Every structure is written in structure tokens, then in C-alpha cells.
Amino acid sequence: MKYDGKKIIGAGVLFILLVINVGSIGITSQKNNPQPLGILEYEPRIHDFGDMYEGETNSTIFDIWTSGGCCELIFNLTWDCPWVTVFPTSGVTNGEHIPITVTIDTTGLDSGLYGCDIQITTNGGGDGIFNVTLNIISHTYPALAFYPQSHYFGVLMEGVTEETTFEIWNSGTGTVSYELSWDEPWVSVSPTSGSSSGEHDLITVTIDTTGLPLGSSQESYIDITSNGGNKVFALWVIIGTTPNVEIENITGGLFRINTIVTNTGTEDAVGLEWKISLSGNGLILMGKETTGKLSILPIGEERTISSGLIFGLGDVEITVSLQNPESLPIVQKTPAKLFLFYIKI
Q1: pLDDT for residue 68
Q2: Contact by Cβ (8 Å): 219, 205
């Protein structure tokens, strides 16, 4: 029998096409539609503190959680209003409600309406804004106000002069008459008295470190007396060479919290006592507090301090504190989440 090669090839091609078409009948193409990330939810979304006087504080709470989605929601909060503080500033939720505390401090605010947007960003579950508003009203009588309320000059060598300023004004009605007094001879203030019916008066404070002991910590309190109340402006300075200890980083991980401590000052830090502690609503079964001491932290060097073994569950706040006789206490806090033996920051 003689075979026709062209016919055989044509039949083969037809068979292949038929198989492809038959195989595709009734089959729907499957697209890769991954389940979305956790969706941001938060309530309430606004809060009005209403009428407040200068110098008052107040706070409110809103909750953040996630609904739907496949994964945990990681969130961060940012704002640019100096009279607002927020805690915590970040967190993680798998559906549980995370309370966020917003605190306002009206110190230094003039009369009028104020608003602040707290931005909420997430790892893909959407963004949001929590808004706070308030109205600063005037007292019905003379009321002394001043801002800022303190100043730290840092580390200064002996024999130098530095200055800072603050403002005094009347946050009420009428006129405030005031006088300033202090005891330390290395401090001078100008002017030493004045009056305000609402305008801001600039006060200049000058310090002269000549003759002050090296390595000493000096402080001064300037008393402000007036017919609208009495208040105090505080200042302090460290004289001469001294260590400058800083907390560079706080990290979590398996079982322990690690912190990098550096000395950027001009003298070795000796006898540096440190503490790592956990607090908050979480269940802390082990490692609630760890203390230790660095015998010396040389100039320009860093050391890593670590907590003891940690075991727990839930939201916590980590506090790292440092103290030695030659510098002011240093405290740094950060929120974290315990997953049994894993600490997530």
C-alpha cells in the first residue's frame, strides 16, 4: 500500500488541533487572585476636645484593628503637631482592637481653633486619618502664660557663655504684670519685669560657665511672679568633659531584647547602670525586668546589652533606661508584641 506523506502530516496536525480544542472544552482559566492583606479599621475617626484654656492637658482613645484579609495588619502613626503626643506610634493586629491614646497639651497655645491630623499608614491594608480639634479660650481674668518652660544647654566647657529665650504673655483678660528672680550668679535674665495684655514678651536667659566645677551638673530655677499666677522656668547644664551615652537601637527576636549603647562624649562612661523592662496589657511570664552594669564604656565605642529570657503573649511596652553619676538619666520606650518566645518590634 502506498502512503501519501502529505495526507498523513495533514491528518496529524488536524488530530492535534482536535485534542487541544476538546481538552479546553468546559475548562475555565484560573487566575491567581491572592486573598487581600488585612484591612484597616479604626473608630472613632475624630475627636473634639471642645473649649480649653492654655496650659491644660487632656486625652482621648481610639481603636485600630483589622477585618478580613489573610494576614496581620502592621500600622504606623505620624503627625506634625507639637502639642500632640500619641502612644503607641506603631503596632500589629490580627483582629484584636489596639487602643491608641492621643494626649494634647495646650501649653504655649494662643487663643483660637486648632486641629491635627494623625496619619495612619499600613502594610497594604489601607491608610486613614484620625483628627482632633480644640478651641483655646481666654480666661476671664489675668492669667500668666509662658513657653517653653525649660531649657537644657547640654555639655559646655568652663569659661563660655550661652543664651536661650522664652516668651511670657497674658492668656486671659486685662493685664498681667510680672517679675523674674533667681539665685545663681552664673545666670542673668533680661528683662527682669514687664507686663502683657496679650502680646508675647521675649525673655533672654544668659549663662556664664566661668569658674563652675568641671564635670558638674548645674541647674537654676527662674521664678516668675505675677498678678495672674506664679510659675517657674527651669534650666540646667553640664560643665566640662563628660560622657554622652545614647541608646542607638532596640531590637527584638527570639527570646531576648537587644539594645546598642554608644558613648559619643569626650570622656569614658564609668559605672553605667542599665535596665530593660516590659509593661503593658500583654501576658509576661518571664523576663519582665533585666538589670546590669557596664564597668566602662570608652569614648567613641558601643556595647550591646541584652535582656534575660522573655516568654509571653500580647502587646507590651519596652523601656530601656541608662544612668551613671556623670550624666542625666536616659530613657527610651517602644511598643512591641510578644508571640510566646518571639519579640516583634
Answers
A1: 72
A2: no
